[in-house]
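Q: Protein A?
A:
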Amino acid sequence: MSYATSLYLTGAEIGLSLTGLVLLLVAAWGGTKSARLLTMVSVAALIGAAIFSIGLFDRATSEVAGRAFGDLYRADAFGSFAKILIYLASAAVLVVTPRFFAQSGSYRAEYPVLLLFNAVGMGMMVSATDLMTLYIGLEMSSLSSYVLASFLKQDGRSSEAGLKYFVLGALASGIILYGVSLVYGFTGSTNYEGIRAAFETNFSTGALFGVVFVLAGLAFKVSAVPFHMWTPDVYEGAPTPVTAFFASAPKVAAMGMLLRMAMDPFAGEVDSWRQIVIFSALASIVVGALGAIGQQNLKRLLAYSSINNVGFILIGLAAATQAGVAASLTYVAIYVAMTVGSFTALLMLRAPDGTNLETFADISGLSTKRPALAWSLLAVMFSLAGIPPLFGFWGKFVVFQAAVQANLVALAAIGIAASVIGAFYYLKFIKVMFFDEPTREIETTSPLSHWAVLAICVAIISPLGYLLTIPLGEWTAQAAASFVAAM
């Protein structure tokens, strides 16, 4: 394949990289006063990259789609679908970010640039078909994430979150790199096809250790139990817009990377890793549900909710079928809308003096002061719980259906039973917002940009979202099919 075609296939990453470099120069010259301009340009760049990925997704089965740079990178419907979610989630978070930092005056021009480079790394992660490409994308995303977590330098919680994320992230990267070295040592290849071919010939104990180390490191990135310990602390301590970003776009990238790794180079050894995934899925559902019950901080509660929802996504991976991959992608797409909506609502909770509110005590009697926001937050939480007729129910339905079709009936049954636990702390929102007396004053207005993002998310997760079931099912099926075909 010619370099021209390879450059075209990586057009989204190249475009975002060039935009980021130009904006970096503008930030150096313009300083903090250029931050809002850079934010608008970055949002436009991310939306443009999403549109480009949509076009590539539609042509994924044509002669244009294929392998770039000697099969270091693969442009297929699977990667394009994940990148569309990544870029749109990043753009949505960037839209609602500036107001959060306005009170402290700490919004700086490098923030949107960091988000752009993070998006470039995530795009590489989901399209990588070589361990070296994967690791480069992973580190590019991780390094900017460490800075974003500690962006509020004057806030001790933010600095602590950044340090914790850096230390544990470095540990996870080291685990992945060690697993990569073992896989390479026992297969003689870093290319996914070469690894799979070598495993079909000889899958030794050493190679099994390599697979386990790689999957363990990736489990850290998706906050799956037992590698979830960093999530509540980092989510609570990081600035709320950064937490919203961590809970959405990087989660999509990490899950896409995990799906591709498990179902491409490690696809021939499903029996070797399926039990690990099943344990992690069930443990994530239970730990996420039980851990959230006693939380009073809403960001910390949403961190456990994220762990809980990762468990349901992993059920689709445990099925290890095309239907399972499609179900996981469907759940991820719905999860992005629910997560962005929940954190946008949280960002709209402010005291009259501009202080950001983030505890249950702060939303007491919210329905009497801001009914539209209260009902929107309630819809998002019920969708996260999987309560019909909200669209979050459909995400759980398809992953359980995929598990049953793969003869994992016990896994589906236990997952359904465990999902009931999570409904308890979501129901707490009704009691606090609609039946408790208000305990503090709440700002009664919010920017139009916040309402626009929240309205879109609520519309998607409402019963209107079921209008997307057919097209979403076709898109995820095509993504899973192209992925499996590429294997």
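Q: Protein B?
A:
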Amino acid sequence: MQHRRVGESGLVVSALGLGTMTWGGDVDFAAARALVRSFVEAGGSLVDTAPAYGSGMAEKMVGKMLATDVRREDLVIATKAGFSVRDGGRVVDTSRGALLDDLAGSLRRLRTDHIDLWQVHAWGDAPLEETLSALDQAVHSGMARHVGICNFIGWQTARAATWQQAFPGRTRLASGQVEYSLLARRAEIEVLPALRAHGMGLFPWAPVGRGVLTGKYRTGLPRGSRGASDHFAWFVAPYLEAKSRAITDAVCRAADGLELTPEQVALLWVRDAPVVTAPLLGARTPEQLAPYLALDEVSLPTPIVEALDDVSGGRNHLRG
């Protein structure tokens, strides 16, 4: 698998990342182990997780694999802090103490002495300088090698990056992580330009439109899919309206002409878009992961990219 530098930082990761949001819930340890084995055998290195995923179980699974299945040096571990689910509600706490407590917990669950990329999971109410000082402390202490942000909108990204670049000694932000796909292109308006301006890489989550761009929802809700589940139906539902169906149909037509699958076309469009470092894959089985791992030497023809741009919202001005 190809590897890419994360923005202007010194961090290098595989061109695809393995996401773990469903680990500890829909994905048990046996399935997670099979996913990591397939991913690493294909040359993948980036595994993205968070304390909030499976209430810590996703990190524990990765930690167990580091002890039994994969060498620490073979993985680039990205995790997060500042977000949790308590009593069924979402809690964002980006205070210095909360972030550093999360980091300590992540290191313990992951059974490692450092995080390769430590990210603020969401914008919070704590003063930004307090939040970012926790990132500085994590790097200066050796507990984290690089830092980034997740789910910040454009002005938040620019403000955080500018603050870190303002004085020597502060740790520059290496990356941002937001949703980005043919069904979710709003990041092109402000987030991606901000990332580019500040030399940061992008890790898109849900690059296949929360599974919708696979085409499996064109005739209903397949049994066993996220859209048919009690706990993930809300996640898929926004992309089951008429506009999304038209985009999915276009992806399926392109796939037929290129002898690819719809999910491969959707991923390639994201993987090779400007600013993108590595899309994060939410595959739950090795069978779902395999089509993406076969794309290392494949790219979309420019006319197909432009046609998909047109049908999904217009020209991507970042392409130059």
